[in-house]
Amino acid sequence: METHSGRGRYDLEGPQARKGDEAGDGILSILEGQTPKPLRSWVEFVETAGINSYPGSPAHAQTLLPTDTRYVLFEKHPAEYEALNHAIGDDDRIQIKKADGYASALKLSPRSGETMVCLVDPSYETSRDIDALALWTPKALKRWPKAVLMLWLPLFRDGRESEFGEYLTTLGDCKVYGARWPVDALQETALEGSAMVVFNGPRTAGAECAAIATALQSWWSDKPLGA
After folding, report:
1. Nearest CA among 212, 211, 189, 213 for reference residue 25
2. For residue 192, what is the enclosing H or E element?
3. Would you identify the CATH topology of the domain 1-108?
4. pLDDT per residue over 102-134, tens digit each?
5. What burial class does residue 216 get, using C-beta atoms within 10 Å of its C-beta: 0-12 exposed, 13-18 middle, 19+ buried?
6. Distance between CA 185 and CA 82 in Å, rounded?
7. Which of 68-72, 92-96, 126-130, 204-208 has the lowest mean pLDDT?
8. Residue 65 — pLDDT band, cuts 50, 70, 90?
9. How far apart are CA 41 and CA 218, in angstroms?
10. CA distances from 137 to 20, 134, 142, 143, 201 (A)
11. pLDDT tens sequence across 16-41
12. Pick the CATH number of 115-227 from 3.40.30.10, 3.40.50.2000, 3.40.50.150, 3.90.550.10
């Protein structure tokens, strides 16, 4: 399941994407250069979709998950919800619900023999997003002690996420994977990196996740400011 599903697919040449130009400093730059080996399968998937239909996590999961997977997407913003329905299309495996992901997700539980995987990817537009996730995560871990819980954690220039990130690591068996990019002191941006906090992740995936984070860190470190 996914608590904050978004639109599913994005136009990286559209005005909304160009406003902050995060795509220009990220995936578009990677597409133009030599792709690090750990990122190649993802980049090939993006290239197949095209930059006008850049796949978000729902589109990735729809393509990669087995045919017997049950998938529940929550998105409460009306316009995003409509766009998500259009992006996903007809798929008997997937339920798309216009609802608050935090409250609605906790009402669900895995069936016998299922492994629950939950992705949490809020916008972090205000400090309330951190507060809400700080309250929700212990509840989720208590309700689903064996679930794979994946939380996106933006790395801010002012370090506002540090205390929250440290708090998450006290809640259970988790790993943190992430990377930072160089930021021009004169550039108006709140972020300087991105991380994932993963509870109960498959041990076999740990080395691959670490390799992806290391490859991104190395790629960003070699990238000149403003390039």
Report:
1. 189
2. strand 191-199
3. Rossmann fold (3.40.50)
4. 999 999 999 999 999 999 999 888 888 999 999
5. buried
6. 38
7. 126-130
8. confident
9. 18
10. 29, 6, 9, 10, 15
11. 777 766 787 788 888 888 888 999 99
12. 3.40.50.150
Torsion sign (Cα): 197, 107, 131, 85: positive
What is the DSSP secondary-structure string of 7-50? TSEE-TTSHHHHHH-HHHHTHHHHHHS---GGGHHHHHHHHHH-
- Asked if domains 1-108 and 115-227 share a fold, the reply is yes
| 140 burial level (CB within 10 Å; 0-12, 13-18, 19+) | buried
The domain spans of the chain are: 1-108, 115-227
